[in-house]
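We both want to read discrete structure tokens more fluently, so let's practise on a single case. Would you supply a protein for us yourself, any chain you care to pick? Would you write everything just below, so we can both look at the same thing?
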Amino acid sequence: MSTRSLNKVMLIGNLTRDPECRYTPNQTQVCSFGLATNRDWVSESGERQSNVEFHNLVVWSKLAEICKNLLHKGSKVYVEGRLQTRDWQTKDGQPRRTTEIIVENMILLGSKGDAPAGEMPATEPAAPAAEEDNASDEVAVIEDTDDIPF
């Protein structure tokens, strides 16, 4: 018998609402928001089909602050995390259950044009005018900063 298990979720989608942030009693920031993922396929009869799944996401601590500052409704993001199910009771005593994705990693995938008017992400320097036409939607992720010469 194996003792291994895995609880891993990876999604690419668009936010369905702006992140809603709050603080726990011990002042830890937590944000929640929705994410929509689409699946398109062609049926056996040749008909185009489409399905949308909606996911509830929860982000904690420093990553919550980053999400609050950079994300807005419609943002395209990659998220990585784990599934968590919570049980609670409503004010009138009805039992409820929800499954959420606890986000552990997030990468903003949209282009500069996806930001709301007048806003630019604070972590992205403005490109010189000559380079703006060549801007792409690609995102570079640097994991090991030891090789950077400065």
Strands lie at 9-15, 20-23, 29-42, 48-60, 76-89, 95-108. The first helix runs from residue 61 to 70.
